[in-house]
């Protein structure tokens, strides 16, 4: 059984493991105050082009999201998220558990627009009942989105502008940031991300690390005492260096970007093969996540060898599935998958 | 300027004030342990037909909602509410501030169906990502709804059944319960409300009281230590008797229901007059709230004498407004309103 | 049975009730936006000598405390309170329910000193584990304290200075503020209170009102969007005018201070009588609360006619009780109490 | 510089690292549903002698504590902790951030007694103001305590009995559980721990793992939906297997206990040497943490080669420090430390 159901079924990239093997016998500073974390912070600040950034490492994306959001908001303030946003759907109420509402803007492809944000905010400010409505204060978007789609530079700039204009924080979930930055056709880079928003995180867990996300904070209001806030939420690792050394491994040469490119390329092989066979996609994504619509018969044939994520039922005959490639996906396994899919599609006469 | 913008612009019904005048010089027990609260509790239990109920008095509806909901849920559990539900829209994130998500089911008229609840819950239980989703545990509905509409006995029974079947709490917001119970065509009574749900509240503030809502709890899991939970949220009045004496005044004879009938009758006069003039309504409501669609020209003409609530813009030419009658609305003021509306409608040629 | 167990057993002062009777038939603005609240705000700002203050009315002291504190703090920040502070003892975990720790400084008489605050804060800043400790950010004191004691002008100035120096908010719980301001020997006035702190509240419930506390906020960081925060906690009254008219009645002439002086005088009669009889006091208080130590035999004799608060057991033979007088205590009832206490003390040979 | 300031300065035990190297190229189930976690759960249930236990793995102790506590309590309920308890001192308000108060019982050595718990609880139940007091519901103790001391079997049984009698949950923080279980003179084993309480955790981070604590829950009320609660707090690792494989390595042979014994032995060498030199200890601990009182001159001499934790100042001349040994402490480094300490003590003429 080969798992294409997500991009975190493989444990750790050998180069990162190598780092761990190197240091295992020594002693290190604790709680993120060690040479590995220090080095990783410097590397990230360099790539982002801003020496004043605050970089903190935590174990997962939900934790990163709830930390940044709860550090940003006063009690009555809320998040604006796309309906598909991770904070709105798959975090078991994590943001609400810190006391804050997640208000949503409707989307089909995972993206929202500057106009939608402006309109949502105006509806709030124009309401006679404004005092009775949770106050929008932070815009949450993902790059790439939960559907693998990407904001263009212009779209992101427009969102950034409306946030500045309306005094809203902009926060970007980068659980799969590398896959987005390295996607074909993408015109956004790390420096632009940094300039456009108040805080974001660089995903490690889905990008080759054992575990770990790097939170990057530009806004001093959010950054103040952030380590204490991490501690309070149970997220401060005694052996924080385990996170620092992984990000060092990912960023001291171009490993992070190479792995991202590889996963995207593996995904594009599958995408091209399926399109050639006439398969339709629920959404056109440019990154390592594919959302083809397949007939149940086709899926059954594949289910003995491959694991996909069930995304949603289309009708009684067909479903949307999610196929994820990762930094660890081999050309061999992709070759097998394509061959088996083609055979299954032909057999079912699709 | 006459206010028809809500049903809480008038302060207090004379009979209730009379009670207050009677007792003002004496001493009383505190924190709701006094003869007035005791008497009000007995009256309410009698009307509900259940001696085992727990009745607690608090100052407002948002407080009642956040108390019952937070007393009912474990951390990861959430509320299911109509998109129009008060907890989802106009409580400034009060439920989220207690740590719980409010998930919504779409509605046009303020009501949701048993089928929608079943379907929403099934989607949760059937999801491969169930662990990552806030767990639905309490269904919130309003009687009447925020749009003045009512559930029939059959509809409410079906909702009650699906909640029992799925082990969900059912909680009913009765901010305007009296207006609903006394509406023409309504087939639900207090005993049926009590049987159908785990907890509900009987609104006082919008029904003639100075302030106060009576929370009625049937489910022992929710009721346990409820007074301490009220205290913790800052809602336990030192002079709780002020709430008890008002509910005594409302329920020791039929005052509560008489006032409700009066308000409904005043509303029906306006409704009939507007319909006769061909005015359309955003929603057909049976209670004391009306939602007519009026042209801006008509509204301008009326705005010097009357205050309405702006509900929503329909287009550049017309808007939905809310007209509320109350226990205190006089036939005289309604007569004036109708005459002025008719004149304004004729003038604008609508 | 005459209740001396607290100062909120009597319902409402006739002058305040008179206000309510006057307005009961009219209409008013809602949610605190009405002429009564506006007038009360102006009166209070005048007495405090500062036109830029933000004044908000809520129904109780616990609510006032949790609102101001949660509006002031970021997630990792905590309150410093005397061990006897209301927020630390008798609010059922209300502050913690908003997410914040209440750290305590030891006291015997309800008061803490500037030196204690400085020392507590230094211990925090000097700790190697500072990141792991909730960050002190707001100092909570009561005037008068929960034991009826008072800070002198010099003591309060010193506390104010250390708070400013350490960038700590100073917040004063004034549930019985009037009794304190009007106490014999007190050298603090409303203007000085206002100058010394960031926020405080003026108690109404224990000072003649039916219910209501006036929150006075000087610091803009705390004041921002405060009404929305009140709404979120369930504390925004639809008929907010009921609070405004009471504070208007209390402050438009000197009623608030007259009532306070009266209660203090009634207490001093009891204090003097008991001292003459050689009774010792648990604490020397200057206001309307007395804490005598009495033998069980004496208490039993009185228990058929009077209700006191059991404060704490001293040993198997004697206890501390609390005797409260109020704005409503009559000279007649005080006369009876003194006579009966004297008789009981003589009988028991104390 | 050799670090004796804590027991988590070393990264990972080679056997555990070996496990990681083995699996790094394969695929695994996610979110703790994998063969490694399954195996670790079985091993732990076996050692605890109870097949019905629920075992969940998380990254740190503060997270374990806040998860178990918030899963156990209703809003108004609080924790009883020793004043020295980790939840009361060094978690930056983590428990309060979930809405619950931590009430404390005074202790000098880190331990509290059954009598203290009984007395604390009785004071609550006997209070006239019970409704106004946070309700004690869960007793938090640590084994070993934060001062390295241990409860005897009889002491723990007595605590367990009073908790059952008073319907209180008993929860044990086992951050250094192994060091306690393997201490000389200890008469408690894993099975007894399991029987005595409702939930506890087995520390990994301070016991040789890279990171990880195993939460063991016996009480079904706490266990229900626990994984969803972990997710909500941001603690559910995508690659949960990293935790499972470490606990497998620790428990599939006796590694966990061997490492614990080793650390205890290293500590006893230092303890004996210091005692021989007449050094006094702040507390007599039996495990891997030592709290000697040393003169500043002695400490200065050692500070170039060794890092200790500053625990507290005794007076201007001397301080309590904490010396921690760990699974990784070598006999060589201990030998050096002892020699240098002896020399420094002699030089200062202590």
Description:
Four copies of one chain form a homotetramer. With 350 residues, the first copy, chain A, is of the alpha/beta class. In chain A, a hairpin with a 4-residue loop joins strand 12 (309-313) and strand 13 (318-324). The two termini of chain A are 24 Å apart. Chain A is built from 14 helices and 13 strands. In chain A, helix 2 (35-48) crosses helix 11. Chain A has two domains: 2-6 and 257-348, Alpha-Beta Complex (Aspartate Aminotransferase, domain 1), CATH 3.90.1150.10; 14-255, Type I PLP-dependent aspartate aminotransferase-like (Major domain) (Aspartate Aminotransferase, domain 2, 3-Layer(aba) Sandwich), CATH 3.40.640. The relative contact order of chain A is 0.17. The model of chain A has no long low-confidence stretch (mean pLDDT 96). In chain A, the strands form three sheets. In chain A, strands 2-8-7-6-5-3-4 form a seven-stranded mixed beta sheet, with helices on both faces. In chain A, strands 9, 10, 12 and 13 form a four-stranded antiparallel beta sheet that branches. In chain A, strands 1-11 form a two-stranded parallel ribbon. Chain A is globular, with a radius of gyration of 21 Å. Chain A has helices at residues 14-23, 35-48, 61-72, 86-89, 114-126, 153-165, 177-181, 190-196, 220-223, 226-232, 241-252, 255-276, 296-302, 331-347; strands spanning 2-3, 54-58, 77-82, 102-105, 135-142, 169-173, 199-203, 213-217, 289-290, 293-295, 306-307, 309-313, 318-324. In chain A, 42% of the residues lie in helices and 17% in strands. At the A-D interface, strand 1, helix 1, helix 3 and helix 10 of A face strand 1, helix 1, helix 3 and helix 10 of D.
